[in-house]
Structure formats: structure tokens, C-alpha cells
Amino acid sequence: MEEFLNDCMNSKRTYRELVLLINVKHPNIIGLLNAFTTASQLEQFEDLYLVTELMDMNLTNFSIKGKKELRTISFLVYQLLCAIRHLHNCGIIHRDLKPSNIAINADCTLKVLDFGLARRMVHDSQMTSYVVTRNYRAPEIIGELGYDNKMDVWSIGCIVAEMIIRRVLFPGENSLDQWRQILSILGAPKKEFFDRYGIQISENQLEMRTAVPFEEVIPDRAFAIETQMPQHHLTADLARDLLKKMLVIDPEHRITVDNALNHPFVSMWKTEKDMNVPINNYQYDDAIELEDRTTAEWKDIDTAQRKRKADRFGSETSRLGCRGCRDAGDALRECV
């Protein structure tokens, strides 16, 4: 991360990325091995280097490689849901899920990365609407209607659909066009959706937007149909059914991550161990991003952060290079 301190927004995102990578641990979330700067003094601190686990490719590269076996699609979706479930249980929304932010290995191990836009779940009035790359942005964000962690579920639906059909599902060129792309495929939501947000719309307008059958949106020919295993619920119909439940315009009726993990298309992978990955007691406090602070206050926070990290990493500091993490985090706090 070069010269990230030149811009206030980049400073905040870098701080957020570093803190979350240090504190959120899960088999399907990229692991931070080291973080360091070559600067010897705070005045020279401009660049930050993050060393993470090595992965073979991102999902963008994988998606264009041809038809995938149903078993492969199912296992990747399961791991992605496990990662996001853990984030949500930690009180964090990723807010920027897209194929390039998901890495995989040849053995189909999947890990989520890039937490620069992640945020703790707070009242939606305190969270910006300018999140998520446009083509994976949930309708409630496009319409600036407020959002919660179900926005991540929409993004997952877009990602999985792209993995199957090997092209972007909703390739909008701007926010208005994105809305049009969504409505052209999914049709208009029920009137209760518009009423909830105080949007005036007539029944005639709703009737003008009808949904395209999902069998046409995600056709059988997009799958390696010969790899279906009905005895294990690995079928094109069940894959479509899960996607249809994820890609619901009204977030009130969109499937939750927990319910998605219970869906027949992915539930064969579910284990008690996967569902009970320990949650770090540390809770990401994003108050630092929401309030202006004096120099004296920054110094107090810096001192507390240094002590907390020193206590936590202890004897592992030299082995994992966590001193670099600690020093970089302290410097970031002073510059955000």
C-alpha cells in the first residue's frame, strides 16, 4: 500500500483492513502473516506492506475457465457463505464482495479478502451508500434506502451467477442503468417494498416489469449438467433455487446466510466444526472513523492500542512478525 497516508479515505481503509485482518480469524478468510514498513521514523512512514497467505487465483480468473462441476460450485458457495457468516457473527459487513476479492486454490479452498470497505453493523444512517462495486451492489444501496448485512447476500448471488454463466449478471453502466438491468431480469418487487420506503408507484407500473423465468437467466447449458448428483442434491434446479432466493430485490424477503447454509444445494458440506469457529472477543470499534479527535486523544488511543496488541501477541511477535503489525497499526491511528 503505497503513499496511503496522502489521502484521508485511503488512510481509514488501510487502518480498517489491518485491524480486521489481525483480529478476524477464519479458515475461509485470508490470513495476515506479517505487516511492516521500511520507515524507521513516523515522519518517514508512507508505505505499508501486508504479507498474506498465497493463493492461486481469484474468482474472476476462475469464472471464465469454462463450465464447472456442480460439486465444485456447491463447495465454493458453501465456503463463501461460511466466511460471511463468521464476519456477520463478528458484527461486520464486508460491503465489497466481488469475484476479484475472493481467492481460491487448485484444491478449491476459498478465502475472502480485501476489507477496506468493511464496517461494523450500525444504524444505516451512519453508513455510506457508496459501497460495493456497482455490478454487485444490492438494490437497497442503489436506491439509498438503508441496508444491513443482507447486502452481502445479494453480492454473493451475483458472484455465484457469474461463476455459472461466465459473465456479469447485471452489467449496469451507472446506478440508473444498474436498476434497469435488475428490473429487466427480476421484474418489479411487490408494492409493499415501495410502500415501506415511501415510494409512490402505481399498480400499472409494477405490471410493466415482469420477471424472466430463472431457467432462462441461468440455463441448464451453463452447467456441466453431466456432473449432477441428485442423490446429494447437486442439481442445476437446486443451484437456481438458491440463487433465486439470494437475488430478491426486497431485502426483507431475501434469504439469510444461515438459511442459505441450510439449503440443500450446499448443506451436504455443513459440519459442526465449520459452524462453530471461535469468534475473537475483540470487537472492531469504528468510532475512530466517525469522530474528529485531538492530538492528545490520538496519543491516548495509540498508547492503549500498543498495550493491547503487545499483550495479545506476546511470544508470537518475533515468529510472525507481529511487531510490524503493531507498529504499523500505531502509526495508522496517528494518521487516520
Automatic annotation (TrEMBL):
Statement: the UniProt record of this protein carries the keyword tRNA processing: no
Subcellular location per the Swiss-Prot or TrEMBL entry: Cytoplasm
An example Gene Ontology molecular-function term: ATP binding
Domain Protein kinase: residue ranges: 1-266
Domain of life: Eukaryota
Keywords tagged on the record: ATP-binding, Kinase, Magnesium, Nucleotide-binding, Phosphoprotein, Serine/threonine-protein kinase, Transferase
Reactions catalysed according to its record: L-seryl-[protein] + ATP = O-phospho-L-seryl-[protein] + ADP + H(+); L-threonyl-[protein] + ATP = O-phospho-L-threonyl-[protein] + ADP + H(+)
Listed GO CC annotations: cytoplasm
Cofactor requirements of the protein: Mg(2+)
Protein transport among keywords: no
Enzyme Commission number(s): 2.7.11.24
InterPro entries: Kinase-like_dom_sf, MAPK, MAPK_JNK, Prot_kinase_dom
Family stated for the protein in its record: Belongs to the protein kinase superfamily. CMGC Ser/Thr protein kinase family. MAP kinase subfamily.
Functional description taken from the UniProt entry: Responds to activation by environmental stress and pro-inflammatory cytokines by phosphorylating a number of transcription factors, and thus regulates transcriptional activity.
UniProt-recorded name of the protein: Stress-activated protein kinase JNK
The organism of origin for this protein: Diploscapter pachys
